[in-house]
Design a protein that fits this description.
This protein is mainly α and 455 residues long. It has 19 helices and no strands.
């Protein structure tokens, strides 16, 4: 076993990591939620996609400034250590290892399973029940095995699925818009509101939903130590990848307004995306393209598993966290972090079980404030954890221009703060339940940090 990772990824893989992890999962899942949150008001929906995208771009650009200066083991943890300090870096490393990355990975496994079942079932109970969760667990194990046995193959999967996942998005953006204009659905959907809602509340809820769809770009920083010429390639990947995602999402959302009326889209719920593809391309064509949606979700899952597998390694490489000598090990043949990956897999499985029990089981209603949605709240938490890093950039980066030192971090702070406010309006009392569990896991992380000091 070795303790260092080899430089094996280039700029295409880094850009594919940004666009591949972000694009092709949440956009299919959250488009229907945003439509419902806005009462079918497409204009508010598009504004929410734009705001969420600009927040992502502002944060990505701010981190690209740090990526051009810092190259260690795990981008986000490295930036936190450099700007705020080792204790804060450990706190973020622990949070991303136990909550953030596992929750994202769990959600993508569930989405992949859900859309797989949409091909065969129309009953919502079949799509979200125990069968779906079992299939999700299978996808998690499969993705973990691919990354464990051959990271090179995992990297090729990431690049290839990025190309594949763009196909349904561009097809719907182009043909959905043309179809909608010819049938009159696009004009009708833009001028008709299904259910009138309060604009401010709808906007907050919709922007909060975009957090999941846009999230994942920070995952690209986890391959910092494995990226060739990382100080140049990682900033480029973050900025260009983020811009591409914003354009793709808005075009897809507009195209989605073409196939069927918004009221029907909102009523279809679980099968809304497939209904739209079928309306434009027919049963056979729509089903075939929907297979690409499933592949795109698995590609996103694959990229997230890369980050999840390296969570504990990023702490152990700094001689922090529980059993650093064990979790710092890197397999000589595969250049993979097996021990760290196993912990990541267990954490992901635990969150999958929590997700099922709190959201879909018969006793989920009795959970009260603890029945929160783990596909959104951990994502918004990461935005709040960015703020101290951005603030310290303004204090410490004395060798850069005014724009990079003050304007870019300040803009990122405003965007992150907006996302936090949107979360409170959207999730309300469930935020309290999430913060309690967040606090318990954080205290456990502090315990391990103290145990290391004693030893």
């Amino acid at each position: 076993m070795a303790n260092t990772l080899n430089k094996r990824y280039g700029l295409p893989t880094a850009i594919a990591m940004v666009t591949g992890v972000v694009v092709g999962s949440g956009v299919f899942f959250k488009a229907e939620k945003i439509l419902s949150a806005t009462g079918g008001n497409l204009k508010i929906g598009i504004v929410s996609w734009l705001i969420g995208g600009l927040i992502m771009l502002a944060c990505a650009y701010a981190f690209s400034i740090l990526a051009n200066r810092i190259e260690k083991v795990n981008g986000l943890v490295d930036y936190a250590e450099s700007m705020v300090g080792k204790k804060y870096a450990y706190f973020i490393g622990w949070f991303t290892s136990i909550i953030y990355y596992p929750c994202l990975t769990m959600a993508l496994a569930w989405l992949t399973a859900r859309y797989t079942l949409v091909l065969f079932f129309h009953d919502a109970a079949d799509i979200t029940g125990g069968l779906c969760m079992t299939l999700a667990a299978f996808y998690l194990i499969l993705s973990f095995a691919i990354n464990l046995l051959s990271p090179i193959i995992a990297g090729k999967i990431q690049v290839s699925t990025t190309v594949i996942k763009l196909i349904p998005l561009f097809l719907m953006a182009i043909f959905g818009t043309v179809y909608g204009l010819s049938k009159g659905h696009t004009l009708e959907n833009f001028t008709t509101v299904v259910e009138p809602v309060k604009t401010s509340t709808a906007l907050f809820m919709a922007v909060c939903a975009t957090a999941f769809a846009y999230d994942g770009w920070i995952v690209a920083t986890t391959i910092n130590a494995e990226l060739k010429d990382a100080k140049k390639n990682l900033p480029r990947a973050l900025v260009f990848g983020s811009l591409a995602v914003i354009v793709i999402y808005i075009l897809y959302y507009v195209g989605l307004a073409g196939p069927i009326p918004n009221a029907e889209m909102m009523a279809n719920g679980q099968t809304a995306a497939k209904s739209a593809f079928t309306a434009v391309f027919g049963n056979i064509g729509g089903t075939g393209i929907f297979v690409f949606v499933i592949i795109s979700c698995f590609g996103t899952l694959n990229g997230l598993m890369v980050a999840t597998s390296r969570g504990m390694y990023s702490l152990a490489a700094r001689k922090e966290g529980p059993k650093p000598k064990m979790f710092v090990q890197v397999d000589n043949e595969t250049n993979m972090t097996p021990n760290s990956g196993i912990i990541g897999l267990f954490a992901t499985m635990a969150w999958l079980l929590f997700f099922y029990c709190s959201q879909f089981s018969s006793f989920g209603a009795s959970w009260g404030i603890f029945a929160f949605d783990p596909t959104e709240l951990p994502i918004v938490t990461i935005y709040s954890l960015y703020i101290p890093i951005f603030f310290m950039m303004m204090l410490k980066l004395k060798d850069v221009g005014v724009f990079k030192r003050f304007f870019a971090p300040a803009l990122a702070i405003c965007g992150s703060s907006f996302m936090m406010v949107a979360t409170v309006f959207s999730h309300r009392t469930y935020v309290i339940g999430y913060l309690i569990i967040f606090a318990v896991i954080t205290v456990a992380g502090m315990f391990f940090a103290k145990e290391k000091k004693k030893s």
